[in-house]
Each structure stands twice: as C-alpha cells, then as structure tokens.
Amino acid sequence: MRHFANLINALETTNKTNAKIDAIIDYLERAPDEDKVWFIALFTGKRPKRNVNTNYMKEWALEITGLPLWLFQESYSSVGDLGETLSLILPPPQEKIEQSLSQWMMDIVHLKDKTEAEKKEFVLNSWNGLDYTERLIFNKLIGGSFRIGVSDKTLINALTKFSGQESSTLMHSLMGKWLPDEVSFKELISAENINPDNSKPYPFCLAYPLEKETEALGNPDEWLAEYKWDGIRGQIIRRNDEVFIWSRGEELVTEQFPEITEVIKNMKGNFVVDGEILAVKENKVLNFNELQKRLNRKTLTKKMLEEIPIEVFAYDLLELEDNDLREKPISARRAILEELLLNENPKNIKLSQSINFDKWEELNDIRENSRSVNSEGLMLKQKSSPYHSGRKKGDWWKWKINPFTIDAVLIYAQKGSGRRSAYYTDYTFAVKNEDKLVTIAKAYSGLTDKEIMEVSKFVTKNAIEKFGPVRTVKAELVFEIAFEGIGFSNRHKSGVALRFPRIVRWRKDKTVDEIDNLEEIKKLIQ
Description:
Its EC number is 6.5.1.1. The chain is α+β, with helices and mostly antiparallel strands. The chain folds into 3 domains: 142 residues, DNA ligase, ATP-dependent, N-terminal domain (DNA ligase i, domain 1), CATH 1.10.3260; 196 residues, D-amino Acid Aminotransferase, Chain A, domain 1 (2-Layer Sandwich); 119 residues, CATH 2.40.50.140. It is 36% helix and 24% strand. Strands 4, 5, 6, 7, 8, 9 and 10 form a 7-stranded mixed sheet that branches. Strands 14, 15, 16, 17, 18, 19 and 22 form a 7-stranded antiparallel sheet that branches. A hairpin with a 2-residue loop joins β17 and β18. The mean pLDDT is 87.
C-alpha cells in the first residue's frame, strides 16, 4: 500500500502528462505483479462494490475522536470530501501495517459476507495501522469513491512504455471483461487468455474538432460526410451466436437495449459494427434526455420500450467473419457494411446517412441547419482512412455547430476536492422565471484560477445560508453558460435539462436583471 500511496501522491501533485507517466512506470517497476493487476483494475474503473456503509465509517470515526457532530460537519463542509475528512480527524496510527495493495483489495472484497461488527473491527484496525495518505486511499477504496485524474490515454501510454507492447494491443486487452483475481499481469499485458468469451471490443476510432476552414481539407470528393448524432456511441458485437453491446465509455450495456440485442441475435454470421445508439420515434431522432430515461435501469417496462424505442445508426464495420477490417479504407468498409445490412435487413439497425455534396459551401449550409434533425453537426471522414485506435489528426473530424448560450446568475457554490478543496469551484446557476429565480444548471469548468479565487472571496463574504458543504450566495454574479443541447425534464425544478453545461465567461458587464428568462430558453427545444 505504501508504494501505491506514493504513486497517488505523485499523480495528485502534478498536471504534467510526462510526470504522471514517469510516476506510473516507477510504481510498476517496484510493485509485485498482483498489485500491478489491481492497479490497472482501479485505474480502468473496475472497483469493487462498496461493502461498508460510509455513514457507519463516520460514526466510528466520531467514536474514536470524541468530536461533536457539528464540528465534524463543519470540517466536512470545509474539506468537501468524506474520505479526506475522516483521514484528517483520526489520531495518528499506533501500529504499522505492511500489506500489499492486492492483499488490501482482497480483504475489502471479502467484507461482503462479514457482519457489521466484523466490518467495524477491520476498519478500525486498518485506520490504526495506516498513515494519512494510506488512510485516505483506504477510505476511498472501501467507500467506493476511488477516482484518479489519469486519462485512459495516459495509462495506456505508460503501460506501452513499460511493456514495449503496441498501444492498440494494450487498449484492446484492457477494454474487455476480466477480473483482477482471475488474470495475471503477464496475461493482461501480453493479451494472452483475455476475453475468451467473444465479447472483446476494439478501441474506438475518435475524431478531432475541426478548427480550420473546410477548404483546407482539399478536394470534397475525398471526404465522407455524415450527421454527428448525440446518442451513445457503441460497438455491437455478434460472435458465435453471442451478442454484446459496448459503449465508448467501456461499459457493457447489452441488457439496456434488449430490442437491439434481439435483432442482432436473429442476424447471421459474425461481425462488429460501430454506430450510434439513439432514441428514434416515427423516423425522428429524439432528444438525448429521452434516451437518458432508458439508461442504467434494472428493469425496462413494456411502456418505456414503446414510448422510447431505440435504433442504431451504423457508421462502420470493424470485423466480419473473424477478419479484422480496420486497415481497409472506410469507403470499402462502408460498402461491406451496406451489403451486410441490405442482405439481413435488420429492424432498428440502419446505415448512417451519407450526405451528398459537391462543394464545401453546400455542406456548411447543411451543418448550420443540423439542429432541425436533432444533430450536433457533421462528421467528416477521409474516404481512404483506416479505423485508427484512438485519435489521429487529419483523417476524422467532428464539425459541430456552435453551442447554445444563456446568461445566468450564480446562486449556490460548493468547494472542490483535492487541489481545489480550499476554493469554491462547483457552481449552480439560475435564470428568471416570472418574478423568481429557478436553477437551470451546474457547472464546474471554464474559469481561470484567478477568477476562481475572486468568486471564492465573493462567496465567503456574501454567503446567505449553508446546507452542509453548499453555500447560498447573493444573486449578483452573472456568467455566460454554454451547452450542447436542451430538453424537457421532470427531474429539474426548471423543467429543462442542459447537455454538457460549462462556463464561457464571467459577464461582469451584466447585472442579474439582464439574465435570461426560462420561457425564452424553453423555445430552444426542438
């Protein structure tokens, strides 16, 4: 655990990618293979389920320290993170537990079948044998909140540098179904004996935002244009009569789309299709908020299946009858995909529309009107391009329309975590609804460090009420908020939900009387 704690500390204290890669390699050179497997599992989201109630952890810490509840709550409000607060208030350890990461993880996993008394004994003994940083990691691991600011790309680059393997091989190996207690580090790194169950997806080919004039791309005849849809990018896999649906977020979502699974099962052969999963009704693509109602549900009612039907707009064919097609140009892959869909004619699976154009000016007009079909803009793909692993500049571009923007006022603020735990960085904004203010969105990004410090000072001086870590502030600071989409929502007080809201700029030139009105904002919904 000590080496792992040192790694986390090194990663948290730098924002430089190369420094993070060096820290990961240093850890891999020191750690035993069992710990390396758990390291990869934790960094790729394969955390064990929470087996200890965090409310109990708080109660046990209060028993040990004798702190009154109000003081703990004040400390929690200031720190903003439960695991960190517990680590800070606990007394220094009386012992030193020298145990590997893999041993800790197996102990945490096995807590599932323990009694509350046994769980308490384990937690208290652990706290008494770990220093502050180790305790913090332990609290997050056992409480199910362990997250680390390292991208998949950075992790893959570090593993590539350490092992000498190709990044595509490593990415392919790590994305499938595997359990840390059932695979060795050697098998994982060399991609041996991983995913023997037909479910393995390919690394997704990703696009860069287009930030130059389309004329710079050259001859329009060399490019394929499609609509960019706001759904769930997925790979639909059919191998040996089994069907798997993977999201781009490396989540197996097969059970969430039974109608698609059933259609694919009834098809013939083996293939891997890349496409967009969308809510489509009466040939119209629905708002993403409608699709969101279908996600992460344990049961899908017949009513929901009827009200929010699902279709896949197929972009690409990556594999056919065990043949990897990714090195073929997309023009060839698309032709094979079109033939496959034509022969099978699967319900709910359609070929993504190819947009015909002769000049870039024509395409720009189509892009400007893409919201009329609930699209985010266009995708441009060079017809000769292979299917890359990850991003490669020059072959695929996403040409999105400009985001919506509104002016809203800050009404709630909460401190951040980690390096930002001393500042108010999490904001809630409101707009006018007749003579009242109604919350419209939360945003966490878009301000400079200097602006964050300014806002924090304002919140400290102008806080009206506090609810745990949240502060109600005087409605005075106006910000321009950008977002990709908007739809009606019963889960929000305003009745609408914004897609990917973020702060564009601090409107110091505007007052609260000039913020936008809710009824006008609703008119943006298609």
